[in-house]
Amino acid sequence: MRTYERTTFPLSSINAGDRCARPMRVRRRLGFSLLELMIGLSILGLGLIMLATIFPVAWGRTRTLAEFTVEQTLTDNAHVIVQTLTRVSRPRLDDEDNEHGASSFNGDLVVNEFGTRFGACVDGRQPVFSDTRVHALNMENILVAGGDPVTEDLWALEIQTRDEFEAAFFSKQVAFHERLFPPMNPSPSDPSARTPEADLWFDGLASRRFCWAAFHRLRKAVPVPPPNNDLDRSLSTVRTFDMYYVTLRRPRPSARYAQQERRPTPNPCKLTDRAKSAPRARPPKDDVMFPVAWRVQIWFPGEDKTSDFPGIVAWRRDPGTGRLTGEDTGIPTEIMVPPTTMGGSVPDRAMLVQMFPAGARFIDEESGQVYRVINRRITGAFGEQAFLTLDREVVSEDLQIPSSDLRCENCDDDELDPTERLRTVWVFPPAVEPGRAINAPLSFTGSQPVVGIAIRTMNVGPAQ
User: Can you give the residue ranges of every domain in the chain?
Assistant: First the structure.
């Protein structure tokens, strides 16, 4: 690029003609070409795009870190609360403070008001006095309509003989304000009264996004020695429980969650029950403010279904023992919701599909395994059928029933053949639409509410 120097002459040394005949020289300055300008704008645009991309990733990371911190804090707090407030059956049945041997944990040894041991499941041969299924700890929630505290009463979904004995697990074990994060003071005595105290409490409740729920599973069944009325030794045994602490999140203060109707409910005492039950929801007036668990059935395909559903458990029968075992494939298992031949209307079946969006976590009631849905493939003209891809492969050992289980005489026979495994699971459905009609089909909308499930071990003895 050429440059020019500016040359000046004194006005006294030239005349007007000279100025017209000898123009001034002007120096040209350096600049950017059009191509250089376009390259610079492109680099600037890429930088802005990268900067804009960083913010959502950072927000997601921040949210994940915040939820992890909340989960750890809630788990620690919940474990302390459960250890403090819950109790197990006592060795002295005539103790006035024992309330007839009542226990906070279903599945633990319980007795009725006459001092007779109560069997959780009776198959005509021998009752099960303690079982290793996963049970929900009864907690308090709060109704959307009126704001009254109410017990979730999940035990009614499992036990059909409530009038035959007394037990502490029929009443709430954890108050509503104790399961929130951050914790709150107890709710007003009359939430419907619009007092300044009640308004202030509900304003604080609207800012709460997290709470927790708890499940428990007796790790090993406690034997009851004969004679039938000799329970002292069993009741004095220290029991080991696996506690499942579920951290829950509601997306907005206006979210509401439907509760499950008590009837019908799966039969926990009949593992091979082919009469599958479609769940139903309670009326809208029973909707609560924080997520609540449902107890529903899913289907694990077996040997005769592998050709139709790739990536599931491949069953084979050992020629020597005749037992069915699984062949590891390393492919995540795909399960079916609802189970095959389940009754109920199309909206009821579609409702069950909506309970399991991608990311949903659920607990197998029988084995205690925790699964996460990584993909959901919906089929059917009205979305009434779905195949859920789990986060790992499910093998035969995950579904095998122990041979010591008193609900079956021989777990190797065709009665418990896992070619069609019906399982009952605990799941937290998403929120429901506000203002739903009483008889309208229930629709779950939004994301799944489970942040995480932490498992802790708790040893409890009769003195606790």
Answer: 11-52, 291-444
